[in-house]
Amino acid sequence: MGPRGPPLGGSTRKAYGEAGLPRATSADLPVFTHAPKRRFKRPSRAIGFLLYQAVYAPLVLVRSIYRQLIVLTAMFVTGAWIFSYYDGLAPLAAVLASVSTITTIGLYVPNHGDFATLNHTEAALLIVLIIVSVGAAASLLQGTVSSVVNGDLARGAAERSLIKRLKGHVIVVGYAHLGRYVSDKLGELGLDCVVVTRDPAIYESLAKKKALVVLEQENRPIVTLKEAGIDAAATLITAHEKDQDNMLIILGARRLRPDVRILSVVHDEQLVDTAKNAGADVVIPSAVSVGHLLALSATTRDLVGIVFSERVGTREIAQFTVFKTSKLIGQRLQELTKLAHVIGIVRKDELIRDIFDPALRIQQEDTLLVFGDPAQLYELERAAGAV
Questions:
Q1: What structural domains does the chain harbor?
Q2: How far apart, in Å, are the Cα atoms of 240 and each of 13, 99, 142, 274, 315?
Q3: pTM, rounded to two decimals
Q4: Per-residue pLDDT tens over the stretch 64-84
């Protein structure tokens, strides 16, 4: 063990104990008591994404250019009628002449190229036909190239289809700071997660990585939450940088899903009750959580976690090693409960699971994982011979 800070006693304990830093007002840490199970493996999701893109690509391409296709079809029919009516061409020949004229191939020239004697009405109709057709063709080409090169429409359709397949997933609203870490950790845990962001650049970046992401429509939380699959979600986490944005999401989610679990961050501690009244189940003030972590980290090198709870207050999770001079060697775990709760023992790089075994005794070089008040943990660590 390296050197450690001053013991948590006297005025130090007052600063960090019951009368010190304000406690977060969450019912408990944001623990997923009913953690969503992964419904399908992530590799299969990537394959499914590609399959959906392949299926939807032709459909969304047609959907994006169908207006231009209708206009061009109408122009082909109109041109065929013109050549059939004014030049007496058979139906098939009239269609060929219309296509040839509109595409500027020029296989057929009205009135044998003698425009001086061409019927004025026919000439006027052909001028309108060519202008409208060229405009529609240019728009058609632009829409086709955009859809094929960017793949935005097919990708969006694939995302929506995959999101509809999810059940019991987590929705993370806000990706600027906290939301990024939350979604990354959910990914590590293997939980299905849908990210909601307002930043088009972030949306594009995540979409290219085949992440499930929804571009938030500002001031339209209902629409955004529906796109993120709120109907089948298990948990919603709001992590916007502005508290008022979090409130709108909470209100919208509670309206759509009275039973969904909502976890929210607030940056202004005075808004904790407001967020709870809006419908949040767990509200964690960001400044309080970071403040506790920094303060307790300054007092010990052995801190591995912090628990904030209205029921038990602020508690520290620490680890330390039992040295050969420790008086704890040979003791049962029950004998340590007056100072702290041992939640785990690491012995020879393996975690001992049955810590309630009456025959289990502490050995030299055991690493104890303990949960309790910072001052009591300091006393326990002294007993372990680590100070």
A1: 11-25+290-383 (3.30.70.1450), 47-153 (1.10.287.70), 167-280 (3.40.50.720)
A2: 34, 55, 37, 16, 27
A3: 0.52
A4: 677 778 888 898 899 899 989
